[in-house]
Amino acid sequence: MSDIDEGGAHGGAWKIALADLMTVLMVLFLVLWLISIVDPKDRQAFVNAMQGQPPIGAEIEDEKLFTPQVDLIDLQMKPPVSREELQKALQEVNPKDVQIEETDDYVKITLFSDSFFESGRATINDATREQLEKLGETLAGRDQTITITGYTDTLPINNLIFPSNWELSAARAATVARTFIDMGLTASQVTIAGKADNDPVAENDTPYGRSLNRRVIIYVDKRPEKSANSAVPNGVPTGNPFKAGRVP
């Protein structure tokens, strides 16, 4: 009886050893199969990690972290906008409704309000919205400051939205500014102001004269933003109204 027990016990041991061997072989084949389907770059990264080496491209990524982002932005900046580019952006606008002038320091764009805004409102007309957006796209991506000033005629306004022409002129300038920012300009580039019926360019005693005074003027500084303190004429405000909270 003891011989049978010893033989039975001895005879079962090989099964356990065989099972262990099969398990090891299965794991080995599984690892080999996984290695065969892994991308060579990932495989090399795994090997390097096991050897304590940095992953491939780690040094490049570290260099990217220390690359000054300002330099990259400067390289992507478009050159200062030209009068021709602005005229192309506004080519579908009636020439009587827009005026573009250029000096050595800035480009001045005058938008006569009747074509861009409803009377007594600061909402852009649907008919000219696309042209204003094209103008914003043309100005975007450039290292230039933009100063936008709204003007009105002398006819008084008093409603729940605009208690006076001051609010109306500032709101129209802000609407143009927000349109430009939506098209890619940064808020730090843009300054707005409302001057109500000040600085008229025509007499206010005729409908035509008042229509000329209802306008939004955009000054585009031709010098880079970093070096331009202010190239716009005296009396036109500078600074960032978005940070100062002056946008209505």
Automatic annotation (TrEMBL):
Entry's localization field: Cell membrane
Major location (coarse): membrane
Membrane disposition: Single-pass membrane protein
Region (Disordered): 226-248
Keywords, in A-Z order: Cell membrane, Cell projection, Cilium, Flagellum, Membrane, Transmembrane, Transmembrane helix
Record-level GO cellular component terms: plasma membrane
Domain OmpA-like intervals: 104-224
UniProt cross-references to InterPro entries, sorted A to Z: Bact_OuterMem_StrucFunc, MotB-like_N_dom, OmpA-like, OmpA-like_sf
Highest taxon in the source lineage: Bacteria
Pfam families: MotB_plug, OmpA
SUPFAM superfamilies for the chain: OmpA-like
Ranges that cross the membrane: 12-35
Family: Belongs to the MotB family.
Name under which the protein is recorded: Flagellar motor protein MotD
Naturally occurring in which organism (per UniProt): Thiosulfatimonas sediminis
